[in-house]
Design a protein that fits this description.
By secondary structure, the protein is α+β, with helices and mostly antiparallel strands. It has 2 domains: 264 residues, no CATH class; 133 residues, Immunoglobulin-like. It has 17 helices and 16 strands. Strands 8, 9, 10, 12 and 14 form a 5-stranded antiparallel beta sheet that branches. Strands 13-11-15-16 form a 4-stranded antiparallel beta sheet, with no helix packed on it. The termini are far apart.
Length: 482
Amino acid sequence: MSENKSAAIEIPTPWRIKRYYLYALVTVVALVLPWIQVDGNHFFLLSFDKMKLHLAFVQFDMQELYLMPFLLMIMFIGIFGMTVMGGRVFCGWVCPQTVFRVIYRDLIETKILGLRKRIKNKQQEPDMSKPENKVKKAIAVTLWTILAFVAAADFMWYFVPPEDFFSYIANPADHMTLIGFVIGIALFLVYDIVFLKENFCVYVCPYSRIQSVLYDDHTVMALYNPHRGGDIYNENKEKMFTKQKDLQAVQPNAECTACESCVTVCPTHIDIRKGLQLECINCLECVDACTAVMGKLGKESLVTWSSDYEIIDRKGKTNLFRPKVIGYIAVLVIVSIILAMMGSTKEHMLLNINKETRLYNVTRINDTQVAVENAYEFLLQNTENERLTYYFDIIAPDDLNGKIEILKPSEPFVAVPGIKKKKIVVLGTKDMLVDDERHDTVIPIKIKAYALDKDGKIIDKIVVYRDSTFTFPRADIIRAAK
């Protein structure tokens, strides 16, 4: 015993503890982020209620949802690139399913209630024949149900902001869809975390099937080193040894103690010594277990976070930033730049202009003068958070500038946030713009729309231009109207 103690090596901080810190950070961010606003805008909010998208504290109208595919591309490319580099590290370190299971199993059942005896043994289920365990189980489910409703509400805050969410649930009869979503999500989380457990990762989540396509020899994952520990399974994945003495009788240099600490601690109930398995979520619990056992013997862990290239094939060091990974990073950067560029071109006012089917209307003013009118339908939406008054100018070709004016309406547009407003706008002229005996003339024009601040100055970000046309009739039609 004294020799083992003297030979023991220092055991580093367990990966499990590091994961807990990350879980806490992710949880705090997820809960706090919906409450943070900049100029009334959220970091991310997809509001089907108000038909708005908030992204990076910038508000977009639903007509600008072309940004969403880029967000989804960034998410999937990021996860796929993460998988190529670090295996299912997303599953073990970030995925809500894993975080929730740790909260329920390790915190509530084990630490708080003592229903499970040890965090390091995830294979042994509590003995539910004992009355006290039944009470503890009921308390555990009740505690998790409360947390499930908090998680469900937090999820909905990314679609219904907190400032609206609580006012809505105060009147449940008027918002049954919202109430239904919250209850449905909470009930699913109770079933998933309490009853389905890690079977969700193994049988339901499609990511485990995708990972095998993304892995290569340099992908970092939890790996057992058979060159040091010995082969526990044969080529057919059949277990050959359960005791160290039997293993060392066949493989004298094998260091595996057959303690199976790496097996009992695994949340997805696999034996890492069997090789790569789709159930592995890279939580690195097996690495911690083997590090503790082998550390007492003065040896390095037989299970490490490394790659086939380094551990199994023994060809050299793992190459993290290989061409495939660099390719993912490059695509991610390009998509992010495109998203940023498209987001930066956001218009702070939406304006659609459609010309009416009637080309023009000609009315007589006096014996020498007529008025030509063109009618348009303006569809305007104020995408800001305050009531604004909008003004319009007509920009015609240089030789005709100032000769086409807005006849109706005579007052500026007033629009409240989020409401589409339709107006019939009439442009007209009393001048003889074109003297053409054979054809009507289509004159290209630009319509400038803008809003003024309290000091009467144009608000720079609320200026948009739209191309349109003004149709001027043939000369004979003008003469006939006089």
